[in-house]
Design goal:
This protein starts with a helix and ends in a 13-residue tail after the last helix. The chain has two domains: about 120 residues, Periplasmic binding protein-like II (D-Maltodextrin-Binding Protein, domain 2, 3-Layer(aba) Sandwich); about 90 residues, D-Maltodextrin-Binding Protein, domain 2. The chain is an alpha/beta fold. α3 crosses α7. Strands 1, 2, 3, 4, 5, 6, 7, 8 and 9 form a nine-stranded mixed sheet that branches. Helices cover about 40% and strands about 25% of the residues. It has eight helices and nine strands.
Length: about 250
Amino acid sequence: MHMRIFSLLFLLCTLISHDVWADTIVLAVGPDHQEMHDNNYAIYRANWEFLSISLKQQGYKLEARSMPWARAKDTVKSGQSHGLFLAANFAGRDQWASLSKPLGYEVYGCFFHKENAGAQSVIAAVRLGQHDRILSYLSPDKLLNVTTAQKGLTLLHKQKVDRFIVAQSYGEYILANELSSISAALQFDPNQSERRSLHVAFAKNNESSLNALAIVNNAISYGVSKGFYSKVMQDNQVPLRMQFNYDL
């Protein structure tokens, strides 16, 4: 009797879980996902809103699971999350990921301390895990890994590192908000920076993730055709240079 009840409960839970998973796209995101919304990291918030609206029109909900970036990537590869948001087209990322249709652009490079502008001995970056290279010409094993961009910029301000690699607009967003007290001492170096397209990354060897990729790509195409993309970009004041031009 007890075994039968347990089996029925297990089956019910499985069905409920399946139903929730079936109409929900779960994206792994960084640890400051909510802060980026609240303080309007423009390219990030605009694209989350765009995907939320477009997926809803297609009958899907969008759910964020916030965690450190390297762990977020691992949950996608293992099938615990459908995709990784917001993911740049980094060198090496194609070894594990299939990318969605583009959602914009970002410039990646180094911030430096104005009092130590020429030093480049110790370069730090957020740990992303195997394969992904934020800058194609720098191997991850030659970098000092940190858990968050906030940590990296703080170390740079204390001159514990010489350079910190991060997206230009993301670094500027952090320095304009939670690290505003140190912003005057740090500056972005456009030399040897790289422009990368932005996407949602899905695990190329995971069927569930690839199914979600097809759903997201359909939602992107639908949202662009209905004008949702251009509207959220305008509403969030995303610079034109960071927007993907779907009219070309």
